[in-house]
Amino acid sequence: MAKGFYTDTTVCIGCKACQAACHQWNELPALNDGVVELTGDSYDNTGRLSAVDWRHVRFIEQIPEDRSQDGFLKGSRWLMMSDVCKHCVRAGCLEVCPTGAIIRTEFDSVYIQQDVCNGCRACIPACPFGVVDIGKDGKAHKCTLCYDRMQHGMEPACAQACPTDSIRFGDVPELMALADQRVADLRAAGVPAYVYGKEEIVGGLNCFFLLVDQPEVYGLPSQPRLPSEHVVEGLGLSALTAAAVTVGSVVAFRKERMDGMGGDGGEPAPVPPARPIGTPAPAVPGRDTVAFMHAIHGANESSRTRRPASEPMPAAGACGQGGCGGACGCHA
Amino acid sequence: MGSNFAECHPVGFRWAMKARERGAKLIHVDPRFTRTSAMCDLHVGIRSGTDIAFLGGIINFILAEDRWFKEYVLHYTNASTIVEDTFEDTEDLDGLFSGFDPAKAEYDTRTWAYEGTMPGTPHQPKSTGLSHSKEGQPGVDFRRHPPRTDPTLQHPRCVFQIMKRHYARYTPELVARVCGCSEAQFLEVARVLCDNSGRERTSAFAYAVGWTQHTVGVQYIRAATLIQALLGNIGRPGGGILALRGHATIQGSTDIATLYNLLPGYLPAPTAQLTQHDTLEGWLAHEMPTTGWWANGRKYMVSLLKAWYGEAARADNEWGYQYLPKNVGDHSHMPMFVAMHERVLRGFMAIGQNPAVGGQNAVYQRAGMAKLDWLVVKDLFVTETAEFWKAPDVADPSAIGTEVFFFPSSTTPELDGTYTNTQRLIQWHDRGVVSPGDCKSDLWFTHQLVKRLKQRYAGSTNPNDAPFLALDWRFEERDGEATADSVLKEINGYTLPDRKLVASFADLKDDGTTASGGWVYTGVYPEEGKNLAAARSGDDSVALGWAFAWPANRRILYNRASADPAGRPWSDRKRYVWWDEAKREWVGYDVPDFPATKAPGSKGVWAKGGMDALDGDQPFIMKPDGKIWLYAPSGLVDGPLPTHYEPWEGPVANALYQAHPRNPVAKTFNVVGNRYIDPGDQDFPIVISTYRLTEHHLSGAMTRWLPWLTALQPELFIELSPELARERGIENTGWVTISTPRGAIECKALVTRRLRPFEVMGRTVHQVGMPFHWGYRGVVTGDVTNELAAMVADPNVTIHEAKVFMCQVEAGRRAKEVLAGLQDAPRPTPHVGRRERQAAEANIDRAIELAAAATDPAEILAGPPPFRLDQPLGVYHG
Amino acid sequence: MRRRVRVPRLSALVLAPALLQVGSPYVGHGFPPHWGWYIVLYFFLGGLSAGTYFIATLLLLSGDPRDREAVHLGYRVSFPLLLVCALILILDLGVPIRFWHMLVASQRIPALLFKPWSPISLGIWILSVFALFSAAAFVWSLERTGRLRWGPAVRMIAWAQGRPRALMVAWNAVGTFFGFGLAGYTGVLISATTIPVWHNARLMGALFLVSATSTSYALLVLLLLRRGAGRDEPTIAKLARADRFSMVLELALIALLLLILGRTARPLVSGGFGVLFWLGVVGVGLLIPLLLRRRAVLGWAGHRQEMIAAVCVLVGGLLLRFVVVVSPQFPAVSLWAL
User: Fold this and answer.
1) Which among B753, B755, B783 is the top mutation candidate for probing chain A, defined by the most A β-carbons within 10 Å of its own β-carbon?
2) A211 with C100: CB under 8 angstroms?
3) Per residue in B446-490, pLDDT tens?
4) Are residues A130 and C31 in contact, defined by beta-carbon separation less than 8 angstroms?
5) Neighbouring chains of B at 3+ CB pairs within 8 Å?
6) What is the value of pTM for the model shown?
7) Is C62 close to A124, i.e. CB distance below 8 A?
8) In this structure, is the dihedral angle defined by the CA atoms of residues C259, C263, C268 and C274, taken in order, positive or negative?
9) B with C: 3 or more CB pairs under 8 Å?
10) Which residues fall within 8 angstroms of residue B736, CB to CB, at 6 or more apart?
11) B199 with B574: CB under 8 angstroms?
């Protein structure tokens, strides 16, 4: 049974207890050892999910500029949301990981095996939610859904610490049912709530959210894409282009060839060499690799006389020691 | 109101959110739009320090719109009680109540008495610092007869009529003008509140230091009391006025008092300034009413003395009453630091306290510590207090003679003990880990200290040492500390001489056969091996099986009021405690807070005194007349009714009173370095409020050393509106200088629309806010916000006014220049002058003489001590 | 010329619909992988290695004896570059010692690890396989030119020489195929991310591939010229011509790419990277060389001009990788900040 989080942002009070609990349980270092600058971005000073912040609370101030006497009465919102790895049903990081370090656990969570990861960092841009990050140890880190706790039947630290039950942990279907009920209640009360993380979001999120505004407002993509989406397409196009390049090049060479035949290049056409013993007659001179080898050997002297400056080539017969395995005519 | 519930009490707020999920309406009235506001259905922004105007407006609304709960108010409050004709209202005296003495800046509270109950014994408080804590005395003498009433509420001097007149001017229009909210907003709040009160529904107020930290702090809460009483929201489920506590067990620290003016169990501490307190009998007569539950006061006091002095407490020595140290003045926080400056106070123990950062006018308080002979700091980290001599403003630490002792302290998970939280719930916690290094618990520290002192005083004949010799210090010892278990047992109480635990404070006696270290807790440990504080069988309702709520495991106080006068539930929906006619007793979901078999209809016999004096429909048994006091004839020193005073430092004139815009009896400290800003001073035009963030705790002594937390809130900031930022050319995250006559500090700006200017009395008033978690030590450091705050206090409990004062805000880092500019406000120097010394010597001699007078048994038998303090030590009156 | 230009036009006409029907470009946010110079260089050198192999092979197969030198040059450049690539790639890892985890399932040794749908896994295998061909060609070239006298190698080659022609062709074709794979997958790798400008750039593989060939042509031309070959020598001439073709194709692809990226192309074409892109990649890398090869400028000696053109192409190719790889990681940086 898939386990996950249901994060109800409407009851999140932005206390960051989840962030602290996560740090404590997972023994994560504090961002820059706790000495950071005030961001001035509401009450958010850690910025984003990272290798050391597996939970991150966003603060979105929505307060109209006109706060005359009634300003605070109507239309003022301060949205808070505890972001976390979504443990996607179709996980981008899992898809691209070339080492098999990222696995899907028996709880259907997505887990990075620290003893396998070699820090290629492919998973970082592969995640549509910007969850995975590289740590100081050169390995990729993200929320483990407290795999260790789950293995002992405990709920993840953040869920346990959350004072208002904004973060709930459990079996995804049950959580989803809860969320749907809550959405219905909120809708009835005129709140435009909805669940972010149903199937249309990369096949579903095991850690989904109840939001009351556009996903982008919370820094979430409304239509996250999977990295593998364009691989086949991209490879196909590359193949096509490869073909185009080859054709183009061949054409370019051929033209030179024709010009060469025309003799305007001033270069004598290669002298077809004596056919070596035991080699099939070339259908088209010059297209025959073996013959080409001879052409090269035959051309040796001429080329040397023509361009002494050129690299020293072994004289014919220099290969007489059988260097050419008798493929050439020298020993004939 | 007056609290940032979600941010400062997030765990408790869980329940507010649960209620909201079930359809409850949450309203937040606060100057800032906080994380709490974000969770509420309605947020009303009002200027700091105008809550009484707002609440008064609601009271007026209730009375004018006739929305009050008739039956409840008639029977359960003193609305019908008639007041002495000596009483005059602020409405008649332009901001003063009757009995004001300009010389002493005090009221003679006797002029506020109920008709015909003028106290026989005159009451002469020598210091406004004294909290004559227990209501009912002095000022009211119920010995003769119950207070007269007029059930028709028509009598011009009945409380109801007085209230009506007092609040008549608190119209929606006035509220909007004073508070800076709109009439619409105010009316919406008033309506929601009234609509949600009555037989079927109840509303609750939750407040914290946003209400208390004012020069009229106590009256703020009184104002809420009036509303809740008029709407019938007290003693009923879902009602009440909830004090949100800022520390884990601050409730416990008032129950088993760490306050100078209280003994455990809310027994007033004896003071040398009241002749009545010279003897136990006098103390009892003066402090304990004869009617209502407090008539049992003698039992509790004697049991306490037995618990403390054991064998040495005998009937022939007033049960050791004279061993009790007597107050000689206001010994609360701020006066102590004034006393340090005067060298009256020469040694100081800061245990789990960080005044160097948390104290009002922190520079003054640090300078005070610099004049001590010795300072003991016991804390988790080496706090700013432990290193006050390293403060940025200290030019030459070597000039400071204070000897500082630091004791590393254990923290909660490292020790057994109890938490008592806001709903009086005593919860036991076990030691989880062993303290690192030399860290020791407070129990260890106190236990060892006492043992050593007793050794030190052993055999002494000096009467001053008598109390220590008499002290009965018998605790089970483990690892050198008194076990929390044995301490809790002593607090619970036991019989003597067999030392059998008692099950209820009803069993406590005044004949010396019982001992109890804090009668309110009695029952928490009813028998050996049965520690109810550790009980953990809860449910989703009253959960009587979860821990123990004093008194007697009652979850809602005065819950008899949840039934109508006839003992029937007000409504099925709100059924809680009711009279069972068949069983002839009170039953319900909770432990009834009323004599179990006292029938609703029974009439009290006044002459009998005690509980027998009260009728069966008088639920408020801690009151001498069993009623909620809408009008407080005594117990308060600044007025029987809450009335709107501007803060000590306010931006505008008082819309109600010209002559006395501020609380006339507010406690002020006219000392060097504590200059106040006069109302309307344009050099300091901005209203500032200090507060806490979720991410840190108070002065940061527990949190600023934790990188996990400092990363969440790394730097000191000032929250201000875009309007003010534009006006002053301040950028978000740009540097800002904030100054008052007390000091100037620098921090970064957090420009946010969550703050806004207020339109007040035709003026635009800017409001800013600053957390006060930062100091000069720790993982992250920052300027000390409290260097800005003034030492000025509420006269009842000497709580400072940190929630509102005036300041100046400028862009850039200019603290140094600004400080240089504060010529007329010389900063206190950490240096003791000769004049100060001489004054100090004189003071201290008197103090010693006094102490002797107070504690020498021989002298007491000879008669009242000859020496009386004509002026309390350490306190100045402005 | 006309004919040459038509080729990309045609391909564009064929591909455009397929490419543009994806609708609005993806604007989600993945986080930058901290890929820096190592990766840029790898992409660049990998392309050169593949390209030179491809060209050498093509020349070999087209069998003009006058290209002999170019063939050997190509083969002898390809493999060393590939080694450099492998080294760089390993050094770029967070835990270099674990590079083999990409080939072998470290927990189920000796089970191999191959995820064809993961470009990076695919790429590692392509690289490895191509390494064989490149190495073989390298050895062959050494032996042919008498640099290598090691018996086994000599005998191997002799044996190989003895195989039927078709087999040789097939062998070279397969090698070239993997070569193209190496040149192209890097671009696919880029598009197999969720960073919009990368994700939407499904033409990146093609672009890198063309750029790889063109830069390789330039490299060979440059080297040949350095060895004193004249500009008008047939090999040079044909290489230059082929290069021109791929450059035109590259231009076309770039145009098409920008068309597809739409607004998500901002990181590439704005700020300091934008300057690099337009002036460096398009200007220096493509337009200037094309110009230099069309007519004499500043009366430079022809082959000097050809050299300059070649250098420009190489610079352009490097800049292309730099801009593509780095720009999305530091959006809208000014030129001076770079």
Assistant:
1) B753
2) no
3) 999 999 999 999 999 998 899 999 999 999 999 899 999 999 999
4) yes
5) A
6) 0.86
7) no
8) positive
9) no
10) B718, B720, B730, B746, B747, B748, B749, B809, B810, B811, B812
11) yes
